[in-house]
Automatic annotation (TrEMBL):
<dbReference type="InterPro" id="IPR051043">
    <property type="entry name" value="Sulfatase_Mod_Factor_Kinase"/>
</dbReference>
<dbReference type="Pfam" id="PF03781">
    <property type="entry name" value="FGE-sulfatase"/>
</dbReference>
<dbReference type="InterPro" id="IPR042095">
    <property type="entry name" value="SUMF_sf"/>
</dbReference>
<protein>
    <recommendedName>
        <fullName>Sulfatase-modifying factor enzyme-like domain-containing protein</fullName>
    </recommendedName>
</protein>
<feature type="domain" description="Sulfatase-modifying factor enzyme-like">
    <location>
        <begin position="195"/>
        <end position="411"/>
    </location>
</feature>
<dbReference type="GO" id="GO:0120147">
    <property type="term" value="F:formylglycine-generating oxidase activity"/>
</dbReference>
<dbReference type="InterPro" id="IPR005532">
    <property type="entry name" value="SUMF_dom"/>
</dbReference>
<dbReference type="InterPro" id="IPR016187">
    <property type="entry name" value="CTDL_fold"/>
</dbReference>
Amino acid sequence: MNTTKYSLFSLIIGLTLFSQVAKSDELCSFELKGKSANFTMCESKKSHSKLKSVFITQLSHALMIPSEFEAIIKRDNPIYRPDHKGYRMGLANLQWLNAREALERVKTFAADSSFTVTESKAWSDQEKDLQEGISARKDFPAWRKKFNAVVDKMIQDFSKKENITFTKTQIAGNPILRDILSTEYWSEKNQWKVEWVKIPKGKNILGSNKLQPGHFPDETEFTYENKAEFQLMASPITQMQWMQIMGSNPSRFKQRSYCPESVPFLGSAEICPDNPVENISANDVLDFITILSLTYPELKTRLPDQNEWEFAARAQASTIFWFGSNFDDVAKNCWEEVGAKQQTHPVKSKPRNPFGLSDTCGNVWQLTKNKNEYLLKGGSWTGGPRILRPATKTKIAADGRFINVGFRLIKK
């Protein structure tokens, strides 16, 4: 895209977002008092009281640096090797750039957080030390650990304060506050939209046997019966859908270079709105579900279990994939390691299966919950045909975050 076209596009996006903001009923004041968060809307003059704990949860997600940029790789995948020197150098540069931006976000938030003189002095000293660490650029994991410890202490101290009020001016000047308070929970815009697909009753063969091409030793073949219809999200949760509930975007693939024609800027968050959210853990998803249920009390959701997910992904096909058993057909139906070019892509940009589900193979691994453990299904942009089979599975810790792991939910 040439500069003139890009500038025009940016202007259109900016005007559209400004128009949406101008039409919305903005927050005039926001007060944290005890266990409550009280706020008043400017245009309607309506006053609301909600849970302070939701704000603190969203604030933690917005200020803490979630993880290093690591991908989860299914064993025996010989092709994906992100150890090229240029890749590693670029990754290190991005991590330190994100560190600098994260520190700036915390500084901005701290300026409006009613710290005592002692707290302000302690933060100032710590901020100086963290800034020196960024300049030295010696050990990112150690720096991130120190940063998160400082920020966690700040959030804990902040949450203990009995009474803090943010004015409309303070909200407008603080990107973190602006993003969080524009989420569905606080703004009540009712703009969070998800496509649901009905998964019918029925039986199908799940897993795989030793004679099936690509079979892994941890896979078994069995007949599964889906005894009741359920509704499943048509695609994995996108960065926009996550942002609308959580008020921040943890994704690795959110900069303009990954979606040059569709990146809106909302407050301080940069997003590729239609790309799946990633770099999130199962624990993060539980936070998301909690806030989603408080925002829309009539909507009850959960993670699917691995059998529900695989039954839906196969769409009752008797072949390896819903589109057949030929590994040569994977690239045109899934975002896999060659075509994806080491990044995520917009959901629903590959063919859907007969049930109407998109992204059942590739793009991002998808979380499923099975009693007390979490399993990933579907493969990702790091995997080849063997990894992307619906029978493939791999375990993940509840707090593990990876840049090729996302999720979709079942409506209960």
